[in-house]
UniProtKB/TrEMBL annotation, chain B:
Domain ABC transporter: 3-242
Protein name: ABC transporter ATP-binding protein
Molecular function, one GO term: ATP hydrolysis activity
GO CC, any one term: plasma membrane
Main function: Involved in beta-(1-->2)glucan export. Transmembrane domains (TMD) form a pore in the inner membrane and the ATP-binding domain (NBD) is responsible for energy generation.
Keywords attached to this entry: ATP-binding, Nucleotide-binding, Transport
InterPro entries for this protein: AAA+_ATPase (IPR003593), ABC_AA/LPS_Transport (IPR051120), ABC_transporter-like_ATP-bd (IPR003439), P-loop_NTPase (IPR027417)
Length: 363, 243
């Protein structure tokens, strides 16, 4: 894991100097050189190589981190792109985890082609229900209303899971059977790692397509000035509910992978702590970039892992200080060391830009 | 009539901002809304556009009662508003600002799958060219001068092909030259769109408007053609009194 982390950090610090040298010019309008694809490529290559250089127990840890990165994507979609402050993202993550755990325990369903869609669907359904209630009023709901509503939802689910005997109460559901495809069982290790990495890559590419489409442009309008785009005729509540539901589905997918990887689910998985954790990943890495969420999850988890090993007693304090420093001095996250504001927001008519340049050069 | 607002009353706490104001605008008419500071011009605009809900009164647009419509529903019915404070999206390019406005009524499928090629691209560039912003299409909107931002915002308000455009102080903060150009830019839209314009610059209003409504203390003081209003004694009085 440390290799991955160092690779990313080294890459970040290497390019940071350049970005500093260019000063704000990089952020202003020089969209010529694209940094984002480079960062994405480096992260993917590092992730592909990780199991080759990591010891087995670290590959297991890395698998967990990749699943959490997938979870972080779901929060980046709703907060980083649509500006919906969801403090209850774990509700979709955990309820899907519980859902697939019950499928495995009570119905012996562990086939990957059944459990993963089921988990995704559970996340989607819960997000539609909660999102419908919180977001689909006749008039746009306030940020406070939505964040408190999602927080309460997550908290209530946590209490419910703790008190419900069928769900195992405080202990949750232990010893979930492994996920299967045909006769093969996915147990912890490189195969599971590459499976979740493959899923993360596919989901990442789908999200990337979505946020760079004109739907993504509408989302940019939504987070920058919701009232303004309502006056253009955008159905802002619908846009929000849709992206919230997509976020819920991604969180559900991550939650079902998590349940099978860890082999058990417990009430924390739907609760406020995990909901907050995902917020930290995204703020730390940099919201509204997708790759920032992935980097944030990797670094926060990697650093806590390393700290808890080396500073057994005071590591949470060190981690807390680190997070605080980043949020104070880099409110746009670590990614902002290499990524200018202009590129972060992106250009939605980029293809047309080339056409114009060609047309200008033609005569 | 395209727009008919009648008996509009708006009370903020103890303040009565509008007290039975009315406004009628015909097809392809440029209508100026004038009056001293605090006479309720902006509030009336907001009640028409849906940014404020009137305490009392009725707004009809193309023979439909839209009093209870949300801003989104009004926009989809063909009404468009340029805010008094410029609210272009500063971090987006000019091109994307226009595209955002242009796509406001597209289906979700179109939003996800359409790309700016062909017709859509031409539409964006036509709007930008019409408002003399084409050469800055790929700059961030924040980099524009104040006047250019106002033009961009008018272009955005027109992108959805509205039947009625509400402009709240379009020339605020503009130089004389920029004001003149703004007048020129607005002329061609008369073929397909009516205009209600709130403006302090009376010369500007006189040059481009067909009819005027004068508000004073939340009530209509006078309404008529530009020459009728100019000849009106009580209008002259309130402007002299304030001057």
């Amino acid at each position: 894991m440390s290799v991955v982390r160092e690779a990313i950090v080294a890459d970040a610090s290497g390019e940071a100097d350049e970005a500093m040298a260019e000063g704000t010019a990089a952020g202003q309008g020089r969209a010529g050189r694209k940094v984002l694809p480079i960062v994405e490529g480096v992260v993917l290559v590092a992730a592909l190589l990780a199991p080759l250089v990591l010891q087995d127990y670290l590959t297991v840890f890395a698998t967990r981190v990749i699943i959490l990165a997938l979870f972080a994507l779901s929060f980046d979609l709703v907060w980083g792109y649509a500006g919906i402050m969801s403090f209850g993202q774990a509700l979709f993550f955990g309820s899907a985890g519980y859902g697939v755990a019950l499928l495995a325990r009570d119905l012996d369903i562990t086939n990957i082609f059944l459990v993963l869609p089921a988990g995704t669907l559970i996340g989607l359904t819960f997000a539609l229900l909660l999102g419908g209630f919180l977001l689909l009023g006749r008039h746009p709901s306030s940020v406070i209303f939505v964040s408190l509503g999602t927080l309460t939802g997550s908290y209530a689910a946590d209490r419910l899971a703790r008190g419900w005997y069928y769900l195992g109460g405080q202990n949750g559901i232990p010893s979930i059977a492994p996920m299967t495809v045909g006769g093969y069982e996915f147990t912890e290790g490189p195969a599971f790692y590459y499976l979740v990495l493959g899923i993360l890559t596919v989901v990442y590419l789908l999200c990337r397509f979505l946020v760079r489409s004109q739907f993504g442009l509408a989302l940019a309008g939504l987070r920058e000035n919701e009232q303004r785009i309502a006056f253009f005729g955008y159905k802002v509540q619908h846009l929000k509910a849709i992206i919230f539901a997509i976020g819920g589905a991604v969180a559900g997918l991550a939650g079902s992978l998590y349940a099978f990887h860890e082999g058990f689910v417990w009430p924390n998985m739907v609760g406020v702590v995990v909901s907050t954790q995902v917020v930290l990943y995204v703020l730390f890495g940099g919201s509204g970039t997708l790759v920032g969420a992935v980097i944030g999850a990797v670094i926060v988890e990697g650093v806590s892992f390393w700290l808890s090993d080396n500073y057994r007693d005071i590591w949470p304090i060190i981690l807390g200080l680190l997070l605080l420093l980043v949020i104070l001095f880099r409110p746009l996250g670590l990614i902002s060391f290499v990524l200018g504001e202009r590129e972060r927001v992106g250009s939605f008519g980029a293809k047309a830009k080339k056409n114009i340049k060609e047309k200008r050069n033609a005569p | 009539m395209l727009l008919e607002a009648a008996g509009i009353k708006k009370i903020f706490g103890k303040l009565t901002a509008l007290d039975g104001a009315a406004l009628t605008v015909g097809e392809n008419e440029f209508h100026g809304l004038i009056g001293p500071n605090g006479s309720g011009k902006s509030t009336l605009m907001k009640c028409i556009a849906g940014a404020e809900v009137p305490t009392q009164g009725k707004v009809s647009f193309i023979n439909t009662d839209i009093t209870a419509f949300t801003p989104t529903e009004r926009a989809r019915a063909g009404m468009s508003l340029k805010f008094q404070i410029t609210s272009v999206l500063p971090s987006l390019t000019l091109y994307d600002n226009i595209l955002l406005a242009l796509q406001a009524q597209s289906s979700l499928f179109d939003l996800v799958f359409s790309r700016t090629r062909g017709a859509l691209h031409d539409q964006v560039m036509t709007m930008l060219t019409q408002f003399r912003l084409a050469d800055r299409a790929f700059d961030a909107a924040a980099a524009l001068s104040h006047g250019q931002q106002q033009w961009l915002e008018i272009a955005m308000a027109l992108a959805g092909k509205p039947r009625l455009l509400l402009l709240d102080e379009p020339t605020g903060g503009m130089s004389l030259e920029e004001r003149r150009v703004t007048g020129e830019l607005l002329q061609p839209i008369k073929q397909h769109c009516s205009l209600v314009i709130v403006e302090h610059d009376l010369d500007f209003i006189r040059d481009i408007c067909d009819r005027l409504t004068v508000l004073d203390q939340g009530k209509v003081l006078a309404s008529g053609t530009v020459s009728e209003i100019q000849a009106n004694k009580s209008v002259q009085e309130i402007y002299l009194r304030r001057a």
